[in-house]
Amino acid sequence: MQIKQKITNIAWKLILPVLLIVIWMVLSSLNIWSTYILPTPYMVWSEFIDCIVSGLIWKHVGMSLLRVVQGFLLAAVVSIPLAIVLTASHRMRTLSSGMIEFFRHVPPLALLPLLILWLGIGESSKIAIVFLATVYPIFLNALMGFSEVDGKLVEMAHQYGLSKKQIFLHVTIPYAIPYIVSGLRIGLGYSWRSLIGAEMIAASSGIGYWILDAQTMARSDIVIVGIIVIGLCGIISDALFRWITNRMLSRYMTGGDVYGA
After folding, report:
1. What mean pLDDT do residues 245-252 have?
2. 3-state secondary structure 86-137
3. In degrees, to the nearest 5, what angle opens at C-alpha 260 toward C-alphas 156 and 78?
4. What DSSP line would sit under the chain, residue for residue?
5. What is the CATH number of domain 40-252?
6. CA 77, CA 241: separation in Å to the nearest integer?
C-alpha cells in the first residue's frame, strides 16, 4: 500500500513538469521565436547529454557542491553552539539582538564586493557567501528550539533529580531537534541559491559561472541546461538530507518521520 501511495505521489508531482514540456514543444513548433531565444526541448536535451558525456557538468557541479558543503557545514558548526550560548545567557542575547536583526536583513550578495576586497576572488569569498546565507536560518531555528522547551518537561526533570547537564542532554536537545533540522534544511536551499549568484559575479568555475558564460556566448540551450542542473542538485541534496535525518533522528519524532511525510 505504501509503495502504491509513493508511486501515486510521484505521478502527481510529474504532471506539471510534463505539461510544461508539452507547452514548450508546442511553442517551439510554432516558430514564434527563434531558437536563439527559445531553444527546442530536443536542443536542450542534446546539449545536456553532450555535457554529461564530455564531463563538463561534473566539473562545474563538483566545484559548486564543494563550496556548498564547506559553507553549509561551517554555518552549522557556528550557528548551533551560538544558539545554545544565547539561550543560556539572557544578557548576551539582548546585547547581540540588534546586530543579529540588522545583518539578518542584509542580502549576502550585497556583501560580496567587500568580501572580494577582503578575501579575494578565490574560494574563500564564495564559501563566505554560502555561510552568510545559511547561518541565519539555522541559528534562528535552533534558538527557537532551545528557547521554547516545554516548561512542564523541565519541571518534571527537576523532580526526578536530573542535573542541568542531564536536562540539557535529555530534554532540551531532543525538544530542539525538529527546529534544528528545519533550519538546516532551509539553510541547505539557501546555500545553493546564494552560491549561484556569487559564482556569476566572481568565479571561473561552478554552475553559476557556467550559466553566465553560456549567456555571453548566446547559448540559451546551455543556460537552460544549467538551470535544470541547479534544480536537480537542489532536489537531490534535499532528498539526501531528508533520508539521512530520518534515519538518524526519527526516534525523536512523532510518527518516526522528521518531516511528517
Report:
1. 77
2. HHHCHHHHHHHHHHHHHHHCCCHHHHHHHHHHHHCCCHHHHHHHHHHHHHHH
3. 70
4. -HHHHHHHHHHHHHHHHHHHHHHHHHHHHTTSS-TTTS--HHHHHHHHHHHHHHTHHHHHHHHHHHHHHHHHHHHHHHHHHHHHHHHH-HHHHHHHHHHHHHHHTS-GGGGHHHHHHHH-SSHHHHHHHHHHHHHHHHHHHHHHHHHT--HHHHHHHHHTT--HHHHIIIIIHHHHHHHHHHHHHHHHHHHHHHHHHHHHHS-SSSHHHHHHHHHHTT-HHHHHHHHHHHHHHHHHHHHHHHHHHHHHHGGGSGGG-TT--
5. 1.10.3720.10
6. 17
**Each residue of 40-58: b (16+ CB within 10 Å) or e?**
eeebbeebbeebeeeeebe
CA-to-CA distance for 101 and 109, rounded, in angstroms? 17
Nearest by Cα to 130 from 71, 179, 182, 177: 71
- pLDDT tens digits for range 42-70: 999 999 999 999 999 999 999 999 999 99
Output the pTM of the full model. 0.87
Cα 198-132-137 angle, rounded to 5 deg: 120
pLDDT, tens digit, 9 for 90 and up, residues 163-176: 778 888 888 888 89
Here the cell at position 5 is 501511495
- For 127, other C-beta atoms within 10 Å of its C-beta total 23
Residue that is written with C-alpha cell 540588534 in the block: 98
Asked if residues 140 and 86 have their Cβ atoms less than 8 Å apart, the reply is no
